[in-house]
Design brief:
single chain; four-stranded antiparallel sheet; 19 strands
Length: 556
């Protein structure tokens, strides 16, 4: 649509932009004025005005209307909660992700930087072993690590991850146990983080329950209480500067978004429709199973009504709820079976043949599930627990899922686990349970952030998905280690999710036990001149284990 204007201030209703322009007597369309207001140069060619503004359309109106979204977090959360409770696809998607991402909980592998801290390589191996063991003891003690005293840290991680995926985010609060002086973890549902009617502090503002300071940083969270009041939880202690509360999100956020969207937000209607289709197919199968046959009439005569007449039984029910005035009710109850006798002339029973279910439903279900899996970066084989017999295809799906898991572990470990680990390490150092020279001094000195970060450096790992062919994977990793393409530590983590140094220490103890078992048998061999082959057979029959390196064991 073209318009003729004079110089001055105009408003184009279809664009909604006010702009000032220096042109008159020519036809100008709304996109031209919008482009001018955005600082886009419009060239005058041939005495007229010719412009080209790219907005994504390959032809006029090709993209369709442009929507400006304003997030309704409350509705998205409630619909996601409803779908998780009543939709098996939504519940399966969330639970499958939690099982694979968190499983028994992410575990730390302390990696303090010895070079930055001024130690020689290997000096801190015993320190890392001590810290990991002490953290595991604390994390597995529900009464000490959980504010409510019910769950271990691994269970808390599963609850937090599930809540973050369903509601979009969850608030993590660190409390201090007065008896142990150690941190305790408390979770607050994201649905309780709301904007209060009270005014924020001077220069601060509150959006969706999150308070921002003058620099736009999250400084506090407002939690709705049971009695209807609001409680302010600061992100950091005003005096101690220690972390108190922070938000953990279930999905990726765009820049500037303060709250997280539920994982199911983009597939809410898709999962709702497939569930409706499934219910309709089930109802169809149930109805078809009830209709065993029908009576076909070939002559225009009065029907004997054999099905309805014989299959309905008249009964009487007495209501004695009021002893003074009992009431009788006539009811009809259905009889499961019926025998047909002496049908009217021209009547014959015909069997009711039907497929019973919708043959197109499996294809429709598979297409929707694959689309949902692709949208959430999860291979369909993982989501459906349906793997091909082809090794390469199954391994490719597992490898793609490992890429996704590594990303989730990095984000979840950094956003949820690392702040808890930092508070644990600070508490342990304050209680003199661990020796970390310079750690507490660097804690409150921003100029020594490298020292503080070097002590806190930690990698987080979850449950490793086993290979579909251990032999092939083991041979490949052995070749990689021998050629220096990877390390034993990385191979141990990648294949079994265990720490190489701990494996070596345990193997050493196991081999010492094997040696103590073999020592008396080797003495018998020397004393009675028994062959090594016979000794091995005897040991196996007794349930023992014999190493192939018999000569090396004899020298022990």
């Amino acid at each position: 649509m073209k318009y003729n204007f004079s110089n001055g201030l105009v408003k184009i209703p279809s664009v909604g932009i006010k702009t000032e322009f220096k042109y008159s007597g020519a036809a100008i369309d709304p996109p031209a004025i919008a482009a001018k207001s955005e600082g886009i140069e419009i060239n005058a060619l041939g005495g007229g005005l010719n412009h080209s503004v790219f907005n994504g359309d390959k032809f006029v109106g090709g993209f369709g209307p442009t929507s400006l979204f304003s997030m309704d977090y409350w509705t998205l959360r409630k619909r996601s909660e409803q779908l998780f409770s009543e939709n098996l696809y939504a519940a399966g998607l969330i639970e499958r992700l939690v099982t694979n991402e968190i499983n028994t909980g992410l575990t730390p592998e302390a990696c303090p930087d010895e070079k930055i801290l001024g130690f020689k390589p290997g000096d801190l191996e015993d320190w890392t072993e001590l810290v990991e063991n002490r953290f595991s003891i604390w994390a597995n003690s529900a009464e000490y690590c959980d504010f409510y005293g019910q769950n271990s840290l691994g269970e808390i991680q599963r609850i937090a991850r599930r809540e973050a995926l369903i509601c979009g985010d969850v608030l993590v609060v660190l409390r201090q146990n007065q008896a142990t002086k150690m941190p305790q973890v408390q979770l607050v549902s994201g649905s309780l983080i709301r904007t209060p009617p009270d005014s924020p502090r001077k220069g601060h503002k509150i959006k969706h329950g999150v308070e921002l300071d003058t620099q736009g940083r999250q400084c506090a969270y407002w939690v709705l209480q049971d009695e209807g009041t609001y409680k302010r939880l600061p992100a950091f202690g005003e005096k101690s500067k220690r972390r108190i509360a922070w938000m953990v999100y279930g999905a990726q956020r765009r820049l500037g978004e303060l709250r997280g969207q539920p994982l199911l937000s983009i597939v809410l209607q898709s999962l709702k429709e497939i569930d409706r289709y499934r219910d309709a197919a089930q109802r169809k199968a149930v109805v078809n199973s009830i209709l065993a046959m029908f009576i076909e009439k070939s002559q225009d005569k009065m029907s004997t009504l054999p099905i309805t007449g014989a299959a309905v039984r008249r009964d009487k029910v007495v209501d004695n709820s009021n002893p003074e005035a009992p009431r009788n009710f006539e009811i009809a109850s259905q009889i499961p079976g019926v025998v047909l006798q002496e049908l009217q002339a021209g009547e014959k029973p015909v069997g009711f043949h039907s497929q019973g279910t919708d043959i197109n439903f499996p294809a429709f279900e598979d297409a929707v599930i694959c689309a949902v899996a692709w949208c959430k970066q999860v291979p369909p084989e993982i989501l459906k627990l349906s793997f091909s017999s082809n090794y390469s295809a199954s391994q490719a799906a597992i490898n793609e899922f490992k890429i996704y898991l590594n990303m989730v572990w990095n984000e979840w470990g950094g956003n949820f686990c690392q702040p808890i680990y930092a508070e644990f390490l600070i508490s342990e150092a304050l209680l003199n349970k661990i020796d970390a020279p310079g750690f507490l001094d660097a804690w409150r000195d921003p100029a020594k952030m490298d020292i503080f970060g070097a002590w806190l450096w930690c990698d987080w790992y979850g449950s490793i998905k086993p290979s579909t062919d251990m032999r092939k994977m083991g041979q490949g990793l052995t070749l990689a280690v021998e050629n220096g393409w990877t390390t034993n530590a990385q191979a141990s983590r990648q294949m079994f999710g265990t720490k190489f140094t701990k494996n070596i220490a345990r193997q050493r103890r196991e081999r010492e036990l094997q040696a103590s078992l073999l020592r008396p048998m080797l003495e018998l061999q020397k004393e009675y001149n028994i062959s090594a082959e016979h000794l091995v057979n005897v040991a196996r029959a007794m349930g023992g284990t014999i190493s192939a390196q018999t000569e090396e064991i004899e020298d022990i």
